[in-house]
């Protein structure tokens, strides 16, 4: 049981003696430091115990409430502190938990309820990864309740989510990247107001997320230094409020090809639209919406409607069966590591909170690495020099079709 009163020694000014002190917090949240005016340890421990009993007699028991009311209270307390998407996922996890174990008193929640919830989700054919996310959200809610003294203990603290097998990381090959850009040009020629080729090249060069690209303004582009600044936006006349995931502001490199396309795009862009990739018609519509209604961070997540549908059409036009726009980000990060950047450097450039995220979800084993490993195995079997087989390719070995002028450049 957590102690409400702490006993400590306070030395005198001359440092030759000391006296005992009691530190505690009253019911109103005010901190107190009570001097006992003596140095008798046994007497001080008895006084601390007496004060502890006094406080516990006046401390109210943890609030009793239905699980649904408890979850509703938790959402109100955390609103504005986390991203709207995370809050929505937490809300759905809470609803599923109540549907599983019933709307019982929050003080009655036990470890076995967590185990029952896991089985309930698996029986509904939810993937292990989805169940793990739900458990993560629920554990966070109960942890916050314990920190607020709403609960004596965290009932799901030791609950282990189902193990999730690491999925295959999808990255685009150099030829697929080339085909995507060519298909994007054709898609634009059919009347698309979005510069899809530039959008794809920017993602391959910087590894930016879709939301980061769509909320990039011309003020974020530094043409002289060939960089782009990923920064949050405030709710102003010409821009809407937007927050970066993990609040990680960073500066990323641009390739010469990207800068050239950005210059051409800026010259053709009409005045009044500060965003690089938001079409003028869409920008005007959002501005009209902001003037007539409240524009929240949650609503501002998708400056371009049906984004995935447009990209899938480009992917199919490029002759690629599977793949998402986010795979372009994974391709960029994998290329950075292949070209010699350290995992820590890639983690910082990607804006990840931990290096484990970079390793687990973003770094794929490229085909050329698999080919080199195969060659090494063959050389070892034949008794040849593995070092010679794994030597770095010289200038004559480089592919002329896809030259690389920097670690970030992946396209001709």
Q: Helical content, roughly?
A: 40-55%
Give the terminus-to-terminus CA distance: 65 Å
Please report the first level of CATH classification, the CATH class of the largest domain.
Mainly Alpha
CATH topology of the largest domain: the name is hpI Integrase, Chain A
Give the total of domains. 4
Query: What's the CATH architecture name of the largest domain?
Result: Orthogonal Bundle
**Mean pLDDT over the residues:** 83
GO molecular function, one term: DNA binding
Pfam families: Phage_int_SAM_5, Phage_integrase
Family: Belongs to the 'phage' integrase family.
Protein name: Tyrosine-type recombinase/integrase
Structure description:
The chain is mostly helical. The chain contains 16 helices and six strands. The chain has helices spanning 41-58, 67-78, 84-101, 111-123, 128-147, 174-189, 196-206, 210-214, 256-268, 280-292, 307-317, 326-338, 343-350, 355-361, 367-382, 386-389; strands at 5-11, 18-25, 31-35, 221-222, 227-230, 250-253. The strands form two sheets. The chain has a three-stranded antiparallel beta sheet with strand order 1-2-3, covered by helices on one side. A three-stranded antiparallel beta sheet has the order 4-5-6, with no helix packed on it. A hairpin with a 4-residue loop joins strand 4 and strand 5. Helix 6 (174-189) packs antiparallel against helix 7 and helix 7 packs parallel to helix 12.
């Amino acid at each position: 049981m957590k102690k409400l009163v702490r006993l400590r020694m306070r030395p005198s000014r001359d440092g030759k003696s000391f006296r005992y002190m009691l530190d505690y917090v009253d019911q109103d949240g005010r901190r107190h430091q009570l001097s006992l005016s003596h140095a008798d340890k046994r007497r001080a421990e008895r006084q601390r115990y007496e004060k502890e009993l006094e406080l516990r007699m006046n401390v109210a028991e943890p609030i009793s409430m239905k699980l649904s009311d408890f979850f509703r209270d938790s959402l109100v307390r955390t609103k504005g502190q986390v991203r709207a998407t995370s809050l929505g996922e937490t809300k759905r996890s809470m609803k599923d938990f109540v549907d599983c174990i019933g709307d019982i008193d929050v003080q009655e929640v036990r470890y076995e309820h967590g185990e029952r919830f896991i089985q309930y989700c698996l029986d509904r054919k939810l993937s292990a990864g989805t169940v793990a996310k739900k458990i993560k959200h629920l554990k966070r809610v109960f942890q916050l309740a314990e920190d607020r003294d709403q609960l004596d203990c965290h009932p799901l603290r030791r609950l282990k989510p189902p193990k999730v097998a690491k999925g295959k990381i999808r990255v685009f090959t150099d030829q697929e990247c080339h085909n995507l850009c060519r298909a994007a040009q054709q898609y634009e020629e059919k009347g698309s107001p979005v510069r899809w080729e530039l959008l794809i090249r920017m993602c391959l060069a910087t590894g930016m997320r879709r939301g980061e690209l769509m909320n990039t303004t011309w003020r974020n582009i530094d043409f002289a230094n060939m960089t782009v600044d990923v920064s949050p936006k405030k709710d102003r006349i010409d821009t809407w409020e937007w927050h970066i995931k993990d609040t990680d502001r960073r500066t990323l490199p641009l390739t010469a090809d990207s800068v050239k396309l950005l210059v051409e795009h800026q010259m053709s862009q009409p005045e009044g639209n500060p965003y690089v990739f938001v079409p003028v018609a869409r920008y005007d519509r959002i501005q009209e919406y902001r003037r007539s209604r409240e524009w929240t961070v949650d609503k501002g997540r998708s400056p371009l409607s049906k984004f995935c549908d447009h990209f899938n059409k480009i992917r199919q036009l490029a002759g690629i069966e599977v793949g998402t726009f986010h795979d372009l980000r994974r391709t960029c990060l994998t290329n950075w590591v292949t070209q010699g950047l350290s995992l820590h450097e890639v983690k910082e450039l990607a804006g990840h909170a931990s290096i484990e995220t970079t390793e687990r979800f973003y770094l794929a084993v490229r085909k050329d690495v698999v080919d080199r490993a195969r060659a090494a195995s063959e050389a070892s079997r034949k008794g040849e020099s593995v070092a010679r087989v794994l030597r770095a390719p010289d200038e004559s070995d480089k592919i002329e079709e896809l030259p690389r002028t920097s670690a970030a450049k992946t396209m001709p």
